[in-house]
Amino acid sequence: MGGLFSISMPCDQVVNQVSQCLCTQGSYIYSLSENLAALQKGIEMLKAKRDDVQRRVCREEFTGRRERLSLVQVWLTNVLNTENKFNDLLRTNDTELQRLCLCGLCSRNVRLSYLYGKRVVLMLKEVESLSSQCEFTEVTETVSVDKVDEMPVQPTIVGQEKMLERVWTHLMKERVEIVGMYGMGGVGKTTLLTQLNNKFYETRGGGFFEVVIWVVVSKTPEIRRIQGDIAKKLGLDGEEEWDQKDVNQRALEIHNVLRSKKFVLLLDDIWEKMNLKAVGVPHPSRQNGCKVAFTTRSREVCGRMGVDDPIQVHCLEPEEAWDLFKKKVGENYRHIRQLMY
């Protein structure tokens, strides 16, 4: 008959498969005590491995220069979830063991003991799998920090383009380590330093530097605040312990990061000599290739900072001032000629 078919299987093979199935399922009950003991031992071992990985991660993340790999975080999360599931399983441990009878070979409630025993076996496999996955070659990676942050700045006014080019050319000279710009208040020193920062941004760090740091110093400088600004750029302020550290500990951390980097430090509004060492900034030199540029109102401060040939930021020349005025009021203003005299 065309629609019918038959499958023949030896009787002993059927019996064998059925017996294997019953044996496996039966082991969930009669091996429950043994499996629970193995699971508890496996969980303790997994916790120890978890602690080792966690300590390693924390140690490498401590400086703020590295962050944990996503793969490591997923593993740690999975371990935590497994621990929570184990704790839930353990709450009914005594009850389930009390159900066993005939020296643990059977149960007073076969269905419940079977389901519980199966959970234990599946979790044991999960624990073994997680334990085998913890051999990480690397647990963290370097934190990527933008070289330079572009800053808002007013449009370049007459005369500033030449001044910016002069400062840039001077700062890029190999023999120049520190550049000081001085001038009376309101002549555009901060604007000039901001434009210098943005030129580094446009040229991707000048092609040489790994990080450009901007700090406003002010008339009453606070070392902790200055260190905080530097740390923010370096990614150090993300540490929970950072706020608890004193200035010396902060200086050590900043120094440990910057000593391996080619950096530019831009300091705005210095009123007195600044102790770079106290902040944690390595002194710029030809050997490390680092640079410092700052603005101040005083030429004397430039000298105290070790600058022999500071750049003076002048007020606009009369012709430049007139060009700026025309640009602001408009050359078509009918009384503009009268204002010239």
Automatic annotation (TrEMBL):
**Does the keyword section mention Protease?**
no
Q: Mind telling me which Gene3D superfamilies this protein's record contains?
A: P-loop containing nucleotide triphosphate hydrolases (3.40.50.300)
> What are the recorded GO MF terms, alphabetically?
ADP binding
Q: Which GO terms describe its biological process?
A: defense response
Q: Which UniProt keywords apply?
A: Plant defense
Spell out the PANTHER family in the cross-references.
Answer: NB-ARC DOMAIN-CONTAINING PROTEIN, NB-ARC DOMAIN-CONTAINING PROTEIN-RELATED
Q: What is this protein called?
A: Disease resistance protein SUMM2-like
Q: Which organism is it from?
A: Raphanus sativus (Radish)
